[in-house]
Every structure is written in C-alpha cells, then in structure tokens.
Amino acid sequence: MRLRSVLTNAEDLLILERLRRRLSLEDSTGDQSLFGFYWTRKSVAQAAGLIDEFLPENGTVVDPFLGSGTNLWAFLTARRTGAFLGAEINEMPIANLRFCMEGVGSQEIDRIRAFYGELERAYGPLFEYPLIQTEQPLQLISATVDTEGQTPQPSAFDFMDGNGKRIVIHDGDEHFAAAREIYTRRNNAASKLRLPDLKLATNSRIAIKEGTKISDLSSPLVFSVLVALRDSSENRHDVRILLSSCLHLLKYTDKRSQSQFPYWYPKKGAIDRNPFPVFSRRLRDLEKWATKSSLNQRLIKSELGDVGLVRHEQSIHVERCSASQIPRDLLAPGKADLVITDPPYFDQVAYSEYLKLWEFFTGFDTNHEDEIVQSNRTDIDKSRNHYLTGIRESFRRLRDGSKSSSIALVFFKDSKLSNLDAFLRTVEEAGWRFVGQQHASKGQFSYKQNSSPTTTVEGDCIMVFRPIVDNQAFNLPTTITPSKEDCEALIRELVTDFLRKETRATISQIYDGAIVTALFQQGMLGMFTRVQDVLATFEDLVDFDPEHRTYRLKNEGI
C-alpha cells in the first residue's frame, strides 16, 4: 500500500513530547477547583499545567469558548505573569465565574443561608408528612413517580425523621396510601396555580417534544417553589448562583441524575426531589469549597474582585461575545501566544438550549443565535454546515489574533471519524496546521460510557495546532486516492503497532494515540462514520477486558 509522505518537523515533535510529558504529571481526578454547575468541565489542575508549560512569561492566552471558566481559573492558579482573554456567549457561566472570582467568605455564605432559611420556613411544611407518631413530621426527601399523567403518580417515598433516619415506603407498605394522598393533594393544588411558564423550542435531539413547557420538567409543587424562589431573588446574584448549581437535580431525573440530559426524564421511575435538602447540600458544598480552595482564599485577601482588574501582574478580561466576534481592541493581530479551549463538539452538547431552563429560573441570559452547534431545532438553522461555518470563522479570528509562533491546544473528541475529519479540515482551512494529539484519561465514566463501554470514547483528547505561515502545505491535499481496503489495512497495522507498544488500551487511547493523526495525514479519516465500523476492522486481532475497558492483542500479555 502506497502511503502519502508526511513531514513532521523536530519542533512539532518536541511540542507533542512536552504535551505528553506534562499530561503524565497532572492528576485530573477529583479536581473541584471551581464551584458551580456546568457541562463537560475540564480539570483545572490539568489546564494550569498546560498553561505553565506553553505560555511564555508576560504572554497572552486566549480561550474563545470560555464555558465555565476552567482555563481562566487555571491561569490564576498557575500564577503566570501575562494576560488572559476569554469569550463566552452565555451569561450564566460568566456570572458563576464572577461569583468565584470575587472571593467567597463566611459572610457571603451566611447571607445565602439566611435567604434559603426564610424560604424553607415559608414552603418547607409542604414537604412534611405527619404519617407516624413522632415529635416531628417526616420530611420528604424524594418521591419515585410515574410522569405520564397530568400529575405525577408516586410508587415510593424516601423520608427522613427528626433524628436523621431514612425511611423508605413503597406501594403496598403501611402508610403508603396516606403518603400518596398527601403528595397527590398538594401537587394537584399546585397545578391549579396560575404561574409563569415558557414553551420550549421543539428539538428531538435533546428530548424536547412539541408543546413541552418548563413546568413539564418537574412536579407542580417543586415548580411552584422554584417560581417563588425566582420571584424573590431577582436582585440576589449570590442566591441565583446557588440555585444554578441545583437545577439539574430539581427537575425529574432518573436515579442516576444524568445531568447531561436536562430535558429528558423517564416516564416510569422518575425521581422528584424536595428542593430544600438539595439547597442545604449545595450550600455545604459551597462552604467546603470556599474553605478548601487556596485560590479562593487568595482572592479574598487580594480583593481581585472583578473581570478586567489587573492584580499580581495578571491581566484578565472576559468578553460576552462569540469567538468570531472578539473585538480587535482586545485581540489585536499577532497578540496571542497560546490558545487553549474546549469548542463545541458538533451535536453533543447544546449549551444555549440546555441553559434555557436556567434562564427561566435565574434570569441569566442565553444566546441561541450565536451558538455553534449542530441541532435539530426547527425554528433556527443549526445544521452541520452552520456548525462548521461557525468553527471556521472562530478559528480564522483566532489565527488573525495569534503570533506565528503560537500554539493552539484544543480539547476535542468524537467517536465518529468523519466528524473528526471535518473538524480538522475546517480548522486547517481557517489557517491552523494540525500537528497531532494526545489522550488524557479520566478516572470516571459518564452514563453513555457506562452503557456502551466497548465503543464510547472516554477521557479527553487534546489536539495541537500551529499557525500556517508562508503558504505552508496543508495536510489536506493528496494525489493518492486511497481505497476502503487501504484504510482498513492501515488501521490494522496502526492498532497492532500501538498495542505492541502499550500492551493494552481503551478505544479512546487507540483513537487518539494510533489512528486519528495517521489517517488524517493519509486523507483516510473521513472514510468511517461509526466507531463500530472502525472496531470491526481490527476486532479479530484483539481481546476486550470489560473490567478495565481495554483492548489487547490476542495471545499477548497473558
């Protein structure tokens, strides 16, 4: 098989080696360096290590898809001199980041506790059940319900007595009928209240059916409490931040509380939670974070205070805008030394659409127009082509604002090789040359990774790009037209060589360490769409270890 000749210079190889070495030093497991809730958060410790490794002294680092602010927090943690510029289209993650950057002390926590305490005194009795002869009524922790009717139908209750003992009552147990009567009566009463509501835009990809409203996502009683909280916290930024960290648990969920699916919930066996124990638990989490976060303590003492303020030779600015619209006075041509970012992954997380639930209850604004995502929304164009155009425009803006010597570290993963191919081609069209990538494992697995362990990508992948200068050749063109058979043969060869070196590896490690870069360089990456088809090309060569979720060559390593 003739392979296209690909030249990789020594400087590229050195960058990849530095990345590999740095990732081997960082422990990203259990990293809780930033309070609050957001999707697909990355490790602050890992990002701080990358900034420390690749940002020159007094350099400028840019994150055009800031999200929850992991990279900004990492920049502060690394204590590197220089400037940080971030861009984010949605208000909630910026508000949470501002809250953390202001430094959270005991007085702030006491004020939040007092607010929620007053709310609980007003609405907490609605979750009390006088079922047995005790000094205090039982407090409902959660109900397991069927959600197909107009009001939820309970099948089990989880209570706590005055001594902190948990009492679970199932259908058929003593006191279940009485508990069901109280639960149903209170929810029926709440359902008759004339409360503000919002109809969501239909999107089958994220489980929003035609006519779905915000009130459909939780029980009528919980919805009424959340509306009351919303109406009374309009001027309480701190209270809304704590609420934003809880909302994914205060809608119907499955027993695992899968937060990556905010609009989905099971028809049977859904969990309906009393919001007040959730508030209390998150407040304790905030107090623990505020005490244990060394950076939070440093921010309190230094009074860093706000985005845009310069302290400790660190300049920070966060702009609420799309990546392609970063103002030139903030990102002048040739300014950035390092780009480190986690852009949207095709249709995997529709951040702005997800945040519509948060916008309704917290007031933090969302931006659907500028969101870069592949979506099934019927009211706005979010096609695959729209997504790739947004990626191209964003990375073109970054190329204009970056030095010719800069480096871009881009978190990106997808089990579909055709998606990876389209992303890499688009970024190269925007003026960035793909150098290679490195896998970064994590110590935990998502719901999807648990449900399909043989084929679901896990951990993170960090792609490395460098600016195209002086009309450097892209990786794209090739005079050789490879066949599917050529591609399958190359995959088998790559996987065999990789597993002989590594002994065992997950499918993600095989993707990131063996397949993607080589196939892209040969113009073969777009030939496969499904990970199952890729696995089928070498499945006869390997054995799968379900305990460790790894593959190894047959008859080797036994």
Report on this model:
Helices cover 39% and strands 16% of the residues. It is α+β, with helices and mostly antiparallel strands. It has a domain at 124-279. Strands 8-9-2-1-10-11-13-12 form an eight-stranded mixed β-sheet, sandwiched between helices.
List keywords for this structure.
558 residues, alpha+beta, eight-stranded mixed β-sheet, 18 helices, 39% helix, disordered N terminus
Mean pLDDT: 89
- Count of DSSP strands: 16
The rough form would be described as globular
**Proportion of beta-strand residues:** 15-25%
Strand order of the largest sheet: 8-9-2-1-10-11-13-12
Classify the secondary structure makeup into a structural class.
Answer: alpha+beta
The stretches of 5 or more residues where confidence is low (pLDDT under 50) are: 1-7, 303-311, 447-451
Helical content (DSSP H or I, runs of 4+): 25-40%
Termini, distance in Å? 32 Å
The radius of gyration over CA amounts to 26 Å
Summarize the biggest pleated sheet.
8 strands, mixed
Number of helices: 18
Topology:
Elements: H1 10-25, H2 44-54, E1 59-63, H3 70-78, E2 82-87, H4 91-101, H5 106-123, E3 128-129, E4 138-146, E5 153-160, E6 166-170, H6 176-191, H7 220-232, H8 237-244, E7 270-273, H9 275-292, H10 294-302, E8 310-311, E9 314-319, E10 336-341, H11 351-354, H12 356-362, H13 384-400, E11 402-411, H14 417-429, E12 432-440, H15 447-451, E13 460-467, H16 484-502, E14 504-505, H17 507-521, H18 531-538, E15 542-545, E16 550-553
Parallel strand pairs: 1-2, 1-10, 2-9, 10-11
Antiparallel strand pairs: 3-4, 4-5, 4-7, 5-6, 8-9, 11-13, 12-13, 14-16, 15-16
Helix pairs in contact: 1-2, 2-3, 4-8, 5-9, 6-7, 13-14, 16-17
